[in-house]
Amino acid sequence: MKKKPISTGRVVVVSFLVDVLDIVTNLIVALLTGSAVVFAEMAQGMADSIGSFLLVIGYRRSRRPRDQAHPLGYAREVFFWALLSSMIMLFLGSGLSLLRGFQQLTRAQPLDRPLLALAVMVLSVVTNGYALSQSVRKLRPEGSSLLVAFRRSSRQLVKTALLRDMLGTLSAVVGLVALGFYLVAGSLLFDAVGAMLIGVLMCAFAVLLIAEARSYIAGQAVPEHVRRQILAAALSIDGVEAINELAAVVAGSEEIDVELDLDLVDRLTTPQVEAVLDAVEAEIGRRVPSVRTVRVDLNPARPSRLDRDATTG
161-212: per-residue pLDDT in tens? Predict the structure, then answer.
């Protein structure tokens, strides 16, 4: 039986609830045990929950209708909020984890109830792993590669939630292993190093998310397979002779803006030209539903053209 599709809202909400659970449980256990690893996992959950909240704000603001001040809409605003959430992870989550790990390294404090700390790490692995599975199901179609789906997708919120859930799961696993070594060897060095490793992981993921947000803000092109779909859609319309230029960029969480420079066949009347352009826009929207706007220029052909061969391969 085919599984019911998971909504973007469910992915974000599940990720947020897992973060809240991590904050509450890990904060209580960190105070009871004095574990730097548990504190670092709490810091990760706190940075993640604040970041998820900012992403929800960005998503809602990006859905506002166009107005005189923003005639192309607010869709790109989601990338600004994604950048802010990544900065929170870098400076708050990573900074607190590295600081607590360094304190445990230089002024080690014995752990109380280490088995309780180990148990809460097991809980974090389970809850973050569940949230990660929801993000994977949303991003990856049946039977496809997760890496390929991640590269092809323009769903900024889902990709960000996936990376955050992956970070939460990896951090919990690192904490679990560190506490396991502590119980076996009895050295507080493992608690300190585990917390610092979680901080380093957060720093690496934050830099990755910041780089991605920067690329989208600058106007990142759509994946190549989407570009080929747009080309094929435009060239399938009778009356379109060639495409001189195509610019298709990610314009929001799940939105694409397209600009086309077309050559039409000769001797078309004005009503026929209008009909062709309407058909081009409709066909592109049918094949690529995330396309928000299509702007078309009709200019003389240029030396290098995107002809029908560009849609193959």
Answer: 788 888 889 999 999 999 999 999 989 999 999 999 999 999 999 998 898 8
Handedness of CA 19, 25, 27, 30 (dihedral sign): negative
- CA 55, distance to chain mean position in Å, is 10
What gap in Å lies between CA 268 and CA 277, rounded to an integer?
Answer: 12
Instruction: State the Cα–Cα distance between residues 89 and 98, nearest whole angstrom.
Output: 12
Do 192 and 104 contact (CB within 8 A), yes or no? yes
Q: pLDDT tens for residues 271-283?
A: 888 899 999 999 9
3-state SS class at 254: coil
Q: At what angle do helices 8-33 and 156-185 cross, to 10 degrees?
A: 20
Tokens of 206: 């934050």
Q: In which band, very low, low, confident or very high, does the pLDDT at 98 lie, cut at 50, 70 and 90?
A: very high
Identity of the amino acid at 242: A
